[in-house]
Amino acid sequence: MAVSRYANVNVLDDGFFETVEFPTQAMLDAIPVIRIRVSSFDRLDVLAFKHLGAGEYWWVIAIMNDLQWAFNVSPGQVLKIPVNIQDVLRLF
Description:
With about 90 residues, this protein is of the alpha+beta class. The chain is built from four helices and two strands. The relative contact order is 0.21.
C-alpha cells in the first residue's frame, strides 16, 4: 500500500483564513478617477492595460464600478478608472 508524502502535512496554518477587509464605497469614492465610455470592443483587461499599465488590474476597474461580474459591461456604459493604481492597491 502506498503512503502519501502529504499525510502529515498541515496545509491549513493559523493565518490561512484571515479575514480580508475590503474598502468601503466611501474610500473608493475618494480616489481620483477618469471616466471612459465603453465601446463594443472593450474588455476590462484591455482597459486595465491601457489605463493602469497591466491587464492583471482588471479587478480594480470591477471594484471601482461595483461590477458583480467582469463581463457585465455594456457598450455605452461609463466606467470609473483610477488615475493612480497605487491609490487603490494601498487599500488592500
